[in-house]
Amino acid sequence: MCHFLIVNVHLRCHLTSLIVKPSFLFLPEMASWVSTLFFLIWLSVSQAQEGSGKIPTVEFISESLINNVVQDPQTGRIYLGAVNNIFQLSPSLQKEARTETGPKKDGKTCTPPASGCQDTVLMPNSNKLLLVHPSNGSLIVCGSRYRGICSLLNLSNVEQELYYNDNKGQRTYVASIEDNVNVVSVMSTYTKNGRTFKVFLVGKGYGSLDSPKLISTRILEDYQDWVVFENIIVASAVQTAPFVLKYLHDFQHAFKEDGFVYFLFSRTLDGTDNKILTFVSRLCENDQHYYSYTELQLTCGIKNQYNKVQAAYVAFPGKELARVMSQSGNYGTVTSFTKVLFMVAHPDDDESDSALCMYPLNSINQQLMDIISHIDVYLCTPAQWILNHTIKTWLKCRLSTLIKGFQNFLVLFV
């Protein structure tokens, strides 16, 4: 049974005297959907009245594990992707609608539809990806069924299915049938022949039965030879095939900011060292070949003790936290208008111990530019692409030891 609970707690900063009072979402276990912890922190704090002594406690209980949570910014509705269920909640966590997505007949190697498969059994459907598509009023849902196909549900009533097709084959597999493969995504656009399409970029680890794409761009309508949910960019630079046994990517968060798309994930450094490290990668949102893809290692705690990311969220820090970050001397100048990446991480051998680390986005971007200045890579500019040298050299350097670590010193222990 999963409890969705908002209460008021204190966190004491380990290396400073600052005490912050966010409203935390207590979760039954630190699954991938815990990234919404940060989302509801700022949601609940913004709704609390200034100077009030208490923040109301509300909860929602699910009988099955909740994998992910998203909110419609226009209505405030909250959507939960659980095992076998999609829940639609009001902003105060009251259930408005629910649709069952499983268990249904499936098989590990089944290529949909199930009527053409042998040895199918009833299997749970783990809803791995939820994404609000506000321009057409739909909720993108991708589960583990049929090797990760997706559907579109009505944002106003998730019991109404707007689109579903299980006859398009492997090109529409987005998520994964394997439980340990996490999927993250962010909405974007794609321009072709003077026409702009709504798409979503997906970051996904590798399962033995999955497509070999670390990052893919999925279209949301049929166009010429493209079908809904098909990957429309072929880019060998972000295929898992050459790297899967070495790097073991585990994606936890994706977001957009100032013309860039970012992915946060953990992986090993190379085939000779199995230690897990956390990275943030960045590419230009209008880069239709992923040539601008660049990675930066993030370290958390002394000697990178908290090396595996669990969850993350991007938000403004608030005046007091910004002041303390600036005074620490570790972040440069931080104001209440500086976007900060808040990340929960744990040692890869001890999930019971975790820490909250902070990284200003302007510092991350500066570190990424330092990396780019040492390798051959496409740069984003407002008007044009700038090619330093050749794509071939960039591919050679992409996973090289030129990646620099971004050391974080201010740690909030939770």
From TrEMBL:
**UniProt keyword Glycoprotein present:** yes
Name one process (GO BP) from the record. Answer: positive regulation of axonogenesis
Ordered alphabetically, the record's keywords are: Glycoprotein
* Sema domain sequence ranges: 40-414
Q: Does the keyword Isomerase apply?
A: no
SUPFAM superfamilies, alphabetized: Sema domain
Q: Name one GO molecular function term.
A: semaphorin receptor activity
> What protein is this chain from?
Sema domain-containing protein
Give the species. Answer: Neolamprologus brichardi
Q: What is the lineage of its organism?
A: Eukaryota, Metazoa, Chordata, Craniata, Vertebrata
